[in-house]
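Weekly structure sync, notes
Attendees: PL (lead), two postdocs, one rotation student
Agenda item 3: pending single-chain targets
PL asked that the sequence for the first pending target be pasted directly into the notes so everyone works from the same version. It is reproduced below exactly as submitted, 264 residues in total.
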Amino acid sequence: MTSYLDDIKNEKFEVRLAKTEAEVVAAQKLRYKIFFEEDGAKPSEEVEKEKRDFDEFDLYCDHLIAIDKNAGNDPEDYVIGTYRLMRKVGAKGVGKWYSQAEFDVEKFNDYDGEVLELGRACVHKDFRSKVVMQMLWNGLAAYMFDFDIKLMFGCGSFLGTDVNSAKEALSYLYYNHTADGKLEINARTENAVPYPLVPKEEIDERKAFISLPTMIKGYLRVGCKVSKSIFVDYSFNTFDVCIIFETKNLKQSYLEHYEKKIKG
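Predicted structure, written out during the meeting:
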């Protein structure tokens, strides 16, 4: 079957699904470098020993990878970015969604249509350019077209565990982008906290938007919504909002852009 992912490449980079176990391991080692060595997450003994970020979900996921085409034949050299993608069949296989430990997302098991959970997104520090990020976004759009995804969700993370450090940005999210109705999601367990709000009229919305993490800005630009509360993940040194997106709401300008990019 022809995939829209077949054409996401240029003279320097390519984005596609991992084809071998070695490529998956390379993606896991990249995740370890970024999440644990750069961002200060706390690994388990097994993860620290192997210097790769892995868990029970990896076997049930597709692994989208960005490749440096000029880096030789070793996956640990050429895998420079990754996204972990799990559809309903994967969640059924492992028995849960990854985000279920943080948010009440099990309601999406009954969603009418294919559902995709996004996770473990990262790019090597030497390649965090607009080009590579855009190609990964194009890869997600291609995957969406390939599998007729109707709903996407996942965690959007802020570095650190002090929600008050991003009070204006979080207030902007709460007032403008929280999901309601059947898509309303809340954090769970004792790690759930409300948004630390400032009055709406005091927010400089442009400044607040700019201060958001790059990934979250990208999600908002295509029309994503966020959860009504926040999960503080002390083991990963982050605080998270759940990102929720019905693909039918993809802004028409972005839909046309991705279709043109992917379909040629």
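Discussion points:
- The CA atoms of residues 44 and 53 lie 9 Å apart.
- The chain has a mean pLDDT of 92.
Action: rotation student to compare against the earlier draft before next sync.
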